[in-house]
Each structure stands twice: as structure tokens, then as C-alpha cells.
């Protein structure tokens, strides 16, 4: 699955990730899906609402917004309404990894499995090193939702 981003979308993700550093940012991707690609036309930035109370496992108590995020379902509904008003869909989500590579963590996999969507929902990870955006990667879940599959990103003007 090819992931198409406009340079505007790419820049907006960078801005959001750098602005929230050293914490993780999170937002939703708005666009269109066809059989071979996901075209992201806009982002819907959301607050990182992670707290110890929103953690999924007992070990989450050891973490903070520096290495965890929580997307409130109400924010997802707001993004979905905004997308549908433009005849678009929520096609994925993005978040940052402050001072960490843009590779999914085991916690990212657990969260993605909860969201679902399979190969038709993209997860972008923006690495931010020392406050500056670095690598951006794209991932979908395999058909069994057991692991992430790396996807190609194409940025267009």
C-alpha cells in the first residue's frame, strides 16, 4: 500500500511533532483510500490526553506523555465529522517518538490492534531528535493484525 502525502501535510506533521516535543504528539489523518494507496489530504491534530489513568497495562504507570499518547474517542468523532463534511474519511493516525527512532514499539502495536483497520488504516510515526523532526515512517497492520508492515511514503507538491 502506497501512502501519498502532500508537502503541506508533511510540514503540518513536522510542526505538530516539534511543537509538542519533548512529549508525543498525536493526530488523525484525513483522506481517501483506494485499492493500492492511501492519499492523506489533511491532518486533524488532537491533544495527547494520556495520563496514568488511561494506561492499558499496569506497567503504563511508569510512563508519561514523553513515551505514551492517548487519543480520546471524542476527538476521533470530531475528526470523523470534519472529514465526512468534506466527503473524506479518517484514513489513519500519526504520533511522534521523541528522541527515539520512527519504528513501532510493542505498545504501538497494542494500540493499533485496538483501533483495527488492517491494511486500510495507516499509522505514521514521526521521530523527533533533540526537538527537530527526523525520520517519518508509515505502517499498516498485516491481515492477521499480528504485526506491522512498513509502507512506502510518497510526498507530492
Question: Could you say what the CATH architecture is?
Answer: 3-Layer(aba) Sandwich
Give start-end ranges of low-pLDDT stretches. Answer: none
Number of domains: 1
Which class of secondary structure composition applies to the elements? Answer: alpha/beta
Distance between the termini: 20 Å
What Rg do the Cα atoms give?
14 Å
Order of helices and strands: EHEEHEHEEE
Mean pLDDT value: 93
CATH superfamily placement:
Cytidine Deaminase, domain 2
Binned, the helix content reads 10-25%
Question: What is the CATH top level name?
Answer: Alpha Beta
Q: What is the fold named in CATH at topology level? A: Cytidine Deaminase, domain 2
Name the overall outline.
Answer: globular
How many beta-strand runs?
7
Strand content: 35-45%
Question: How many helices does DSSP assign?
Answer: 3
Largest pleated sheet: 7 strands, mixed, barrel
Q: Looking across the biggest beta sheet, what order are the strands in?
A: 1-3-2-4-5-6-7
What does this structure look like?
The protein is α/β, with parallel strands linked by helices and 157 residues long. The protein has a single domain (2-155), classed as Cytidine Deaminase, domain 2, CATH 3.40.140. It has helices at residues 7-20, 73-85, 106-115; strands at residues 2-6, 26-33, 37-46, 89-98, 122-129, 132-141, 148-156. Strands 1-3-2-4-5-6-7 form a seven-stranded mixed barrel. A hairpin with a 3-residue loop joins strand 2 (26-33) and strand 3. The longest helix has 14 residues, at 7-20. The two termini are 20 Å apart. The model has no long low-confidence stretch (mean pLDDT 93).
